[in-house]
Amino acid sequence: ALAQPAVGEAGWAVMDEVVKTAVEGLSENSNFVPVDKIKGDAKVRSYFRRVLFKPPWENPVWVTYFQSRPADWEFDERTMGVKVKSELSAQIEATARHKRKTASFPEALYSAVLRAGTPVDTSTVVANAKDSEIAALPIDAIEALLGSLGNKPEDPAGMALAKHMDACVKVIAAVPGALEKKGAALSDIMRFFDMVLKFHADSTEARLTTQRILTLKELCEAAAFQIRSKGVGNTGTKALGLLCSTAPFHIMALAMAGLGDKGEGDDVKACANFIERVSPAILEALPAEHLLKLAEACAKSKAVAETILPTVSKACSAALPSWSMDDVSKLLFTLAKVKVADSSELAELYSRAAEVASANLSSLSETQLVKVVLTLSRVPACKEFVSTAAGEVVNKMSTIAAPQLLLLTQGMASLGSSDASLMKVVDYWATDEKAKQLSADQLAKLSQVLAPVVPAHEGLWKMAGPRLLEQKSSLTDAGKASVVAAFNFEDKDKLLAATKPREREREREKDRDGGKERERERSRGRDDRRRDDRRRSRSRDRRRDSRDRRRR
Question: What is residue 306's three-state secondary structure?
Fold first, then answer.
């Protein structure tokens, strides 16, 4: 019997497991299952209706779903079929990569290429060589061959033309293998991507066109692997823009996610504008980790956020119910760092996140709860959710770590003193049971957060004042700033006064430093005068010696 789908945090089956179960049930003798059959599966249709509130995706969205998860699926574009990637398939792929990387150097072929005197000779050597040997050539040799074979032969007829075309097909087919053998970086992959794209670009030869497409697809996958494992590194926006403009949507999204590290220039915006190639419905099918990376890019670069945030927000809104709460909380915490004005798409995302989080409040970890409450407390439309979350905080506050409870209090403070749950948390702080676990700076921050909300809470300020006074020597400048911002506890003036001697000491140190500097200036002046006196003395001695010599 087939295993039942795993149950997710919202009480519904996790989407990946639902689709996997459907494919395994529909597969016959491990054959590829048409996408149309998957869309029609009863459990798939039920999942979309009950969790995502819509019918199953159209075929182009399913293509992105399967292609963006190459470790889990084998997808055949020609037949629009898919099957679960088996361990055997993964081992075969790994073995092929290993053979490429460890292929021995083809010394005879390399020497023959060097000896070739004309383009025709070069074409003949390459056309007669084994594919595996060409792929084992050094990458600079492949680059030289692309240059040499880039022009049509002078006599475009008969055997010479046939050999030339054979050589062209073979050399571009060898590019991915040569790059893999070298362990090429993303910048090298994209440099050769551009070369292959321009190699006989006006040719109508079917074999060459077909092989170019296959090579470019393979290079796209190699680029995606590099971005997933190492990021975009020092690859420039021109190369990233080339990838964004030509690669499949799931790879375009990976490249675009790297723009966050490329600054705020017009080149970054131009590259980000390729988001127009794809609809939010397509992006919705990407793995959560890909959409999280796009959100991180928006948080890093205002130029990126201004261009792609609405589309990314819309895609995330649609996909959010199928995500784990860990991914939902990460997304919200990341979006809190974005430095652009809120949009209707972002507001919709926050509303959807509040719905998803509400259904999972009791199962949220402390860290997840903090991220969700801190972010959604900034959104007026989510006040009802924050109030509900405050009730959950009350239920858990005795077990929540003090620093985490401080962050939750900071988010809940927006509810005001009329919220019963917030007041229970304030009363709990006043008991000193948790407050004693806070550092001096953290306690000062708590005072700053709650001062405008509960200025007359006698118990809280009776607790906070003496404890801050005890720890005054531990306060940093940030902690002192928090104390200054807080008010209405009895020992505030005493605490502030206790910090002043340090300020006076710093002033005295400045005076001492100033006095030392003036003394050094006086000393330099005396030294200068002594040097001048010695120079005048030596000058008088030289004049006197000169007069004595003339007399003699």
Answer: helix
Q: Which of 482, 413, 495, 494 is nearest to 445 (CA)?
A: 482
For β-strands 33-34 and 81-84, DSSP reports them as: antiparallel
- Count H helices and E strands in the chain, helices first: 28, 3
- Tokens 């594919």 label which residue? 131
Phi first, then psi, for residue 82 (nearest 5°) are: -145, 150
Rounded Cα gap, residues 149 and 199, in angstroms: 9
Q: Do 192 and 219 contact (CB within 8 A), yes or no? A: yes
Distance CA 374, CA 353 (A): 13
Q: Is 244 left (phi over 0), alpha (psi -120 to 50) or beta?
A: alpha
Amino acid 352 reads R
Instruction: Say how far apart CA 211 and CA 204 lie, in whole Å.
Output: 12
What is the per-residue pLDDT across 484-535, written as a single tens digit (0 to 9) for each? 766 555 556 666 665 554 544 455 555 565 556 666 666 666 666 666 666 6
**How many Cβ atoms from other residues are within 10 Å of residue 234's Cβ?**
8
Question: Is 239:262 a contact under the CB 8 Å cutoff?
Answer: no
Among 21, 80, 82, smallest CA distance to 47 is for 21
> Tokens for 480?
């002192």
Six token digits for residue 6 = 């795993």
**Model's pTM, two decimal places?**
0.79
Q: Which two tokens stand for residue 12?
A: 């519904």
* Confidence at residue 218, expressed as pLDDT on a 0 to 100 scale: 94
> Residue 457 carries which side chain, given as an amino acid letter?
H
